[in-house]
Structure formats: C-alpha cells, structure tokens
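Minutes, structural biology subgroup

Action item carried over from last meeting: produce the structure token record for Protein notum-like protein (Chrysochromulina tobinii). EB confirmed the sequence was re-checked against the source entry. Recorded below for completeness.
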Amino acid sequence: MGAAGMSLRVVSALLATAAGHAADDSCVGHCGSWAQDCWCNDGCEAHHDCCHDYEAVCGGSSSAADLIKLDDSTARCLDGSAGAYYWREGKDPSLVLVFMEGGGWCYDPANYPTQEGTISDCRSRSQTSLGSSRSWASKRSFDEGMLASDVSTNPVFHNYSLLYMPYCDGTSFAGNVSGTVSGLFFRGLQILEATFVHAMQHTSFARASRVVLSGGSAGGTAVLWHADRIARLLTTRRQLGDVERGKRGRGGSSVEVLALPDAGFFLDLPTWQGVDVWPAQMRSMASVSNSYSSLHAGCLAKYAAEPERCLFPQYYAELIETRTMLVQSLYDSSELWYTLMLDCCAGPCSGYPTCKSGGTERSQMFALRQQHIDAWRPLVNRSGNGVWAIACIEHTLTSAHWTDPLWETPARSGNTIAAAVRRWLDGGAEVRLEDSVEWPANQPCSSAD
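Output recorded by EB:
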C-alpha cells in the first residue's frame, strides 16, 4: 500500500471511529497474519484493536495478552502515566516467560551528550509509546518467534504464560528518581519491581516454578542488569508466601530463574575513530536518571569508585549468578553502525560502501567478533550457562530468526536459536555455539545486514 493509500485509510478509519463503525473496519476476510494483513489504521497493534467484529468473525486469538495497569503510584512512565504489563495465561501455569521490551535509551542528538540534551530527548520520548502508556492497546497479540503461543512457530515457549513488559522509562528499567527531573519521571526500577509484585498477587505467576527472563536490545541489557535482582525478589516473595501458607520447614516451594537476553551484551567501545560516543551517551542517561544505583549489585561493589563501568556487562560478566544463555550476533548491527559508527562495510551491505582493504574501519568490523567472545567468556564458561552467537549481521534475533534454518550456528548444523535454547533449558549438554568463522563465511545468512 502506498503512502497516499495508507493516509486515506487512516483518515477513513478515524472518521469511522468518530461516527461509529463502518463497513470497511470489519474483520471479514482479514483473519490471517497481522503482518500480512496490515490493512487497518496506524494505531492498531492487532486486528482486535481496530476491528469491532474481531471476536465474532475470527474467534479471538490465543496469542493475545491483556494490558494490566500497575496500581503502584511510584511506578510511572516518563510522562507520569501508569506503568503496565501484558499478561497471557499459558497452558502450563508453572512456566512463565518474561520479556522486557527494547527501544534504545534517552540520547542527546549530539555526539557529545549534555544533561540538557539527554533530558530533551527523554521529553521527546515521553510523547511516544516509548515514554507513555496512554496509547497502549488494551490487548496485544504476540504471534512471532519466541513469544508466539503456536507450537509450530514456537516449539520452546508456546505453553508458557507470557509477562510482557512494555518499555516507557528510557533507562532499561533502571531510573530511580523519587521526584521529577524537568517534569519527567525516571521510575524504571519502580516499574520493574512493581510489575513482579503485582503479577505475583494478581495472576498465576505466584505458582511458577520456572521463570525465564528475556528481552531484546535495551530489554536484553535490562535482563543482564537486573536478572539477579529479580531472582532475589521472586525468591523472597515465594518464601514469604510459603510462610503465610505454613510451609516453612517442610521444603516449601522454589522458583528457578533463568536469563535469556537477546542482543543485550553491548560492549564499552569508542567509534572506529577512537571517539567516546555511545558509552558517553549511556553515562549521561544514567546520570540524569539516577540509574547507577539500580545496576548489578556485585558490580557496584567491585567498582565502587567507577559505577559507570556497570553499564557494560563485560565488566561484571563473572558476577552474574543467574543461570544465563546469551543470544547475540558477533557482528551486531547496532554496534557496527551506532557504536563503532562505521561508514562502510567489509563486504556488500545495503546502503554502505565497501571498506578499503587494510583500512581501520574494516579491521574494526572484524575485531568485533573476538571482542564479544573475550568479553562474555567469564559468563558463558560457567557451568549451566550458554551462548548462541552467529557470524551474521543482525540486531535482535529471537523474533524473526527463532526457528529460521538459514540462521544456524554453525551453518546447516540444525542449531537454530530455538533448538539451542531448548537444549539449554533441558540442562543436559553444554550449549556454547559461537560461530568459528568470520563474516560472511556463514553463507546462508551472510546477505543480511
């Protein structure tokens, strides 16, 4: 659909909303994949958000999750609206998948961030769904990759309950300011903790014996920052519940918490020209939002005089206690284009010229592979931990490439992300799958960028 056609569709939908439902907002003939049948207005998250007859015509969707607003007055998005989460009951109440949404961080548009510039970007975010819950749909469907409830799409987590945490604080759930800063609420930590407390009180979450924490990009970083904190919170809440039910001293119940971050292991790196840009942006965000105090407790103890190191998991990888499996590209596209700020690609990449042979940019691109492996080695080499890292260019993998046979490590091995994660969850053989080749030698996925 062209831009003009979409604009007309949006106008028509808005008029229909104002005057009552019209014939063309019916779901008749539109019960297939939302990705394929994106025919409603731009504000729709799924069919049932814009089609008045969705339930009657399509029979609803088992992939749909309900929005639950938090009643904790301290848990606020950047604009002050209430934090919230989506909950979808699974077939097995003892299993819960938690997914923390990504979406970057508050960035100063300039390469040399200032407090004023960072706050200005946070204010811009507060006027979008990444900084406010006001526009979040009452229901949302999750039917792709590891979040799907269909067994053929998601053979690993299809029967898990899903707790999806939308992202509206701009700090990877780490902001911790009791008041406001220039009218903005930095309450990411309060949203994080209130979400788990509320879910344990009002859903079947309290009955879970296994909780898998995942998230993509900034959400993956949140998993690495907070997994140990969440594990302690859930264990403490479970123990308190056992005491109330009189189970103390009789074994009680336990909860296994695991971490599965997707594309969250960002490295502390300057640009290819040696300029401190992305790490400086992260430090500015953390300073404005008082996020340092929310980072990994063991790291903060280790680097008491340098808490900024704890923004980057390479400095505390060996301190993460939660059993963890990393999913990451060895040539993460966010790091290539936004951390290293490369102006070229070592081979044919869409939109980028080819780097000069022997040039600094080319060598920096290829160095990223080993830098990742060296940085996360203390974490992935611990018993029970794992890694799936592919030598193809991508950022976040567990949605589009979850069961994709073109994305296997090594190539054509059968080791899709889903297959590797299933083996890791089963707790059998070690799962340490790092592509031994450089890009673009993993041919099936080498054309991606």
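Discussion: The chain is about 30% helix and 15% strand.
Next step: EB to file the record with the rest of the batch.
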